[in-house]
Amino acid sequence: GAMGAAADAEWLRWVTKQFGNIAGKDREISLEEFKSALQVKESFFAERFFALFDSDGSGSLSLEELLGSLRLLLHGNSTEKLRFLFQVYDVDGSGSIDAEELRVVLQGCLRESSMALPEERLGALSQALLQAADRDHSGSITFPELREQLEAFPEILENLSISAASWLKPPAPTERRPRCFSREFWRERLCGCSRECRGARLCCLGAWAAGTALLLALGALRHRERGPALALARGCGHGLNLNCALLAALMLRRSLTWLRSTPLAELFPLELHVRGHELVGYLVLALALAHSGAHLAHGGLAQGPGQVALGEFLWRARPGAGGVAGTAPQTGLALLALLLAMLVCSSPCVRRGGHFEVFYWSHLSYISVWLLLLLHGPHFWKWFLIPGSLFFLEKVLGWAWRRAGDLRILEANLLPSKVTHLVIQRPKSFRFQPGDYVFLNIPAIAAYEWHPFSISSAPEQPETLWLHIRALGQWTNKVYEYFQQLELHGLEPNPPGKSWRERRSQHWEQGSGPGQRRRSCSVKCYLDGPYGTPSRRIFTSEHAVLIGAGIGITPFASILQSIMFRYRRRKQSCPSCHFSWCEERWDEEMTLQKVDFIWITRDQQHLEWFLSLLSKLETEQAELEPGGKFLELHLYMTSALGKGDVKALGLQVALDLLAAKENRDSITGLRTRTQPGRPDWAKVFGKVAAEQRGKVRVFFCGSPGLARVIRGHCQSFGFRFSKENF
Fold this sequence. Notes:
The protein is 51% helix and 13% strand.
């Protein structure tokens, strides 16, 4: 189409520009310069492309040779493009591809997709491809045989006939987070929620804005006789009373967790309480600046005989100046400085830039802020009485509960990409819901720091809790390094007072996967929680689509285990004839009829984080309902190139052939085939809609950028979308 032609023309311009930047006076480029110009990752395909483009065999490429070859690929028919593909694979130019050439090509494909497989698997893949395509059993593949084999994959021929620009395209720019306080930043905070909660969110935003505006107007009207500056200052002060109390109310985690179990959870978007806290914080700072500026303006305008100088008014407490003992100007300036510091230190640029500790410690100044507010505002205590009392009660109860139990980390498993899997002794009477999170404190790492993590084990797991912690900031890196050091110096094989059985939950134990190092230990820790998330909506859906990106799988690990536990409970089996039937009484807590779980991960190593859990879920599904598809897994590896890329076509076809033959994926060992690249959301959701298994709800945990993409597709299919802030 026109779009494809335009993209091809743009790509040829890019190639021409790259060539011009690199070519010397002779206007020709060498193999090394060719690799640099087209940003080809590995040498095998670069060498093959170079050899085929170098039509005169001179050992260097002219711009005419390069563009002539590329135009032939872009505008040629599928047979011509297949001929080029065959020549790439026919390394020795003999006119046929033998087993050794296939192995060399597949090894190059693996490197291009940032993957590694054992030699035995590589041999099995090359044999699968050879056996499928070698129709005359000659031990090699000819061009007609290759063409006949690829006709079984029409989508490949379709891609070859559309465009070849993707074969050597430059890497796509990486997704950038919105800049702090940019238009995208505000859009994400104001509009980034599900369609279902949009009405409730707008009602809450409207009530909040109306309440603030009403208080501001009433305060200003009451003092209008004393000038516009003082009227504005008083109005802003009234608005600050409400919003400073709201700041505390929105962080009552225990109270909000309890509210989620009541009918009020349907009326208020409780899952957005942190975002609400942020928005109220921005308004508090804006009102505080206006309040202070108006007071300074009023003080400057009121200078005259008998009036106190502005400097003395600001720096010395005096009766009649407002606040306790006339300290309003001084406490006001201190409050403004603290609020500014808290805002700067809590911006996403600081928190996501690996400086979570800066945010954490600066936010502890909220105690000083509330004390100063009580000294500064004569009526603030009336607004703060209920939320402040609840906040104080929550903190005292939490502190007492945390210190009562002597908890231990029983195992630390170091996973690829610096992920630490902690197995923690489960406290007695510790009840939580799938998707809940806890605050963790490890005194050996930092005595006073508490950090939130989703619980990745199911509530039905009786003796232990799992946490998966990715090393992204200072504290999380210290956790990984601490347990790495323990491993290097040898860990205690069996903590005192704990038998082997007590330290393990036999049914739920996660097996050691490749790249996983499992070690028993006994490290003291404290937990604060659990705190609730809106995961209950997953269980009350009809057809749930769960999408996790990267470490965003963590809350879904707990949810998936719990779903399968409840599904197992729903199924009954006769011990003599093994006949299965569904309970007539449906589980009131779970109305699910179908679950699709989609995990998008960057590379092969990341798949190892939860590989054994996914394998266990597949096994349970097969045991409970052979051939059934109540739970369907979909895995995507973004570093892997797709079938449309000549640098991966052979590998992906071989993986498909071997997966069909062995009924397992060569990359993970699961029954589910790992798909290369990113999901085609239109196709994924089209397949979900075609299943007609009830109303579809999509739950996503991952980056805001991907959330926007998925939300757009959900709207076009009429699916409900929720971005879970686990």
